[in-house]
Please model this.
Amino acid sequence: MERIIERLLYASRWLLAPIYLGLSLTLIAVAIKFFQEAYHLLGHIFGMAESSVVLTTLALIDLSLVASLVVMVMFSGYENFVSRIDLREEDEKLDWLGKLDAGTLKLKVAASIVAISSIHLLQAFVNIPQIPNDKLMWYVIIHLTFVFSALLMGVLDRMSFASHRNHGDKPQEH
Model:
């Protein structure tokens, strides 16, 4: 009975596969929005103020960061929790594929959230005359919360798991 339960639990990891496949659909949505913004920028570039160009460029950067985050979560999540991605020898393989464990992935996600939050905060600062002070204060507080959380996650990860990742590296000096 125990063996059946263990096999069933192990096989249930495949329930994640459609979720990672679904993330590829969100990647398509982000790409459509990216090109919609790029088309808007290029179509109106001569009539736009510099601040509008900067804001649209920041929005494009924001969308590219989100798309990169989706790819990272999709591939490394699939490899960590479902199955190895088997590529032929002649296929181009991403350098980081197969090297991101769940802890490292969480740190990369946290760093991406901080970067995205930074872009939103920068967009708010570009529009500072139109944003009430209390709302701007909340943007800064939320951003600092993301930064603090990411730093704390990094410190906790280093304290807990760094020794496990150093196997094979050069010996640490005392």
